[in-house]
Design a protein that fits this description.
- The complex is a heterodimer of chains A (about 280) and B (about 210).
- Chain A is an all-alpha fold and about 280 residues long.
- Helices cover about 60% and strands about 5% of the residues of chain A.
- Chain A has eleven helices and two strands.
- Chain A has a two-stranded antiparallel sheet.
- Chain B has a five-stranded antiparallel beta sheet with strand order 1-2-3-4-5.
- Chain B starts with a helix and ends with a helix.
- Chain B has about 210 residues and is of the alpha+beta class.
- Classes of the chains: A mainly alpha (about 280), B alpha+beta (about 210).
- At the A-B interface, helix 9 and helix 10 of A face helix 6, helix 7, helix 8, strand 3 and strand 5 of B.
Chain lengths: ~280, ~210
């Protein structure tokens, strides 16, 4: 379709913003590279990631969180539920495709049932009829599919706006987005409204969780990173025995850690990152 | 029926009557771990559900509840030692005591904050997959309410004779093990500022939470 001047200009702005972000990232990387004394093997880009995290926190506290709070406080719950159901339905469709790709046939069947029930009997997804019948949703995305197929996660990466991710999931993101049904909405204005509404909806559902996180963490960045990586692994290997937490020490005695020097200046214990569960392929 | 037969019968019965004492004795005085978790979860949820002051954000009641009902069933020293890591062995008893106290306040507050969000959630305990002789096991539960179910797992160790016979020493929420996550948090602080720095960081976090 021909591009309107508005579209061309907004693409140019987006391109410019991307380039600016790239420069910012590069500056942060160069500036921060020397700073880290104890690099974490799962997070070799830590200085860069911390910078981007801070940027995201800024955007979140200035823009997203206030909007999500207003949304949560002023929009009646029934409408918010409808919005959440609508976008949930769209994500269920993509989950269906991914469960197929992972050969999780029962999950795929349930996702498909959910999508059909909610679309046809639930006013296009606004009513979550399927949950009333106890048909569970099984969230899957392309990053999980790749993980299941054995692609290792790679280093932890924090993406601007999108937040915590890994190299594998970042590479999977364009596929998730290209096949995102919201992408199919042709009218540019409606599509942006849909993206915004979905972001606000998701953020408002996480408001409570983020406030608990704020109080629980000594260092929000590393807490978020470790939680994200563990959560991701759990999502991929969900049905199997939960991976035993690596090297559970008794009272500090840790034979599994081998020659870990007890000196305070010694390397940060990197065991939680380095020891994948024995039964699982490289994550 | 001659006497020898009766004698043998009596001996057999005597032997058999001793057996039931052996197997359930391991569990008789102590509660089964999944029953313990179910009981604790139900008690806590029933107490917090529908309480207006809790939902308004007043955490004092929830914290008192967590302290009285849940804490006695947690092996807090093991949790703290595991989270602190190798430096625990080098800590003085005074430092260990302070670490435990501050960590406990942090966890109780975090857990209470999460509990305060509960409305109509119910907890289902999944079937236990462990041999009766296991000294450590995992109890898996699921919290269902609005939105996706939340997976909540507990690691318990057998403590025959103490309390309910089992104590919690690790917690997993949505696939994230608590002790592991705090271990790297603590390691960061210890590497930067030593054990005293860690204690100070914990104390600061608790102070900030009390204010906020």
């Amino acid at each position: 379709m021909t591009k309107t001047p508005l579209m061309i200009r907004s693409e140019a702005v987006a391109g410019g913003a991307a380039r600016l972000l790239g420069l910012l990232a590069l500056a942060l990387a160069l500036g921060g590279c020397a700073a880290l004394a104890n690099p974490n093997p799962r997070d070799p880009l830590e200085p860069l990631n911390r910078g981007v995290s801070q940027f995201n926190e800024g955007v979140d506290s200035v823009v997203l969180r206030p909007v999500a709070t207003v949304y949560r406080q002023n929009v009646p719950p029934i409408i918010r539920t409808g919005v959440a159901n609508f976008f949930g339905n769209i994500s269920d469709a993509w989950s269906f495709v991914n469960s197929l790709l992972q050969f999780k046939l029962q999950d795929a069947g349930e996702n498909l049932t959910r999508v059909s029930m909610n679309t046809f009997m639930g006013l296009g997804g606004i009513l979550d009829v399927a949950s009333g019948f106890n048909i569970e949703r099984h969230r899957e995305d392309f990053g999980q599919t790749l993980g299941r197929w054995g692609v290792p996660a790679g280093p932890y990466i924090v993406l601007p706006f999108f937040g915590p991710s890994t190299l594998r999931d970042t590479l999977a993101l364009p596929i998730d987005r290209r096949l995102d049904l919201v992408q199919r909405i042709d009218a540019h204005g409606w599509r942006n409204t849909a993206y915004t509404l979905r972001a606000v909806d998701q953020r408002s559902n996480l408001l409570r969780a983020s406030s608990v996180l704020d109080g629980a963490a000594l260092d929000k960045y590393s807490f978020t990173r470790d939680a994200h990586l563990q959560r991701r692994r759990a999502e991929i290997f969900e049905k199997e025995e939960p991976p035993a937490p690596p090297a559970q020490p008794g009272e500090g005695a840790e034979p599994a850690r081998g020659a870990q020097p007890a000196a305070p200046g010694g390397a940060q214990p990197a065991v939680p990152s380095g020891s994948p569960p024995p039964a699982a392929p490289a994550r | 029926m001659n006497r020898r037969f009766l004698g043998r019968l009596a001996a057999m019965l005597l032997a058999l009557s001793a057996l039931p004492g052996l197997v359930p004795a391991a569990w008789a005085a102590d509660e089964a771990p999944d029953a313990l978790i179910k009981r604790l979860s139900d008690e806590v949820l029933n107490a917090t559900r529908g309480d207006k002051s809790i939902q308004a954000g007043d955490l004092t009641k929830v914290m008192a509840l967590v302290d009285s009902k849940i804490m006695p069933n947690v092996n807090f020293q093991r949790m703290t030692a595991a989270a602190v890591g190798p430096a625990w062995r080098q800590a003085t008893p005074e430092q260990q005591k302070r670490l435990q106290e501050e960590f406990k306040v942090l966890l109780v507050r975090t857990y209470s904050g999460a509990l305060a969000q509960v409305n109509d959630e119910t907890v289902t305990v999944k079937p236990l997959r462990a041999a009766p002789t296991d000294a450590e096991l995992v109890v898996r539960t699921e919290v269902r309410g609005r939105g996706d179910p939340i997976q909540l797992d507990y690691r318990l160790e057998k403590t025959p004779g103490q309390g309910a016979g089992w104590k919690i020493y690790n917690l997993n929420v949505l696939g994230v093990w608590l002790v592991e996550t705090y271990r790297s948090q603590f390691a960061q602080e210890i590497n930067a500022k030593g054990l005293d720095g860690l204690i100070a960081a914990l104390a600061d976090r608790n102070k900030a939470n009390r204010k906020g």
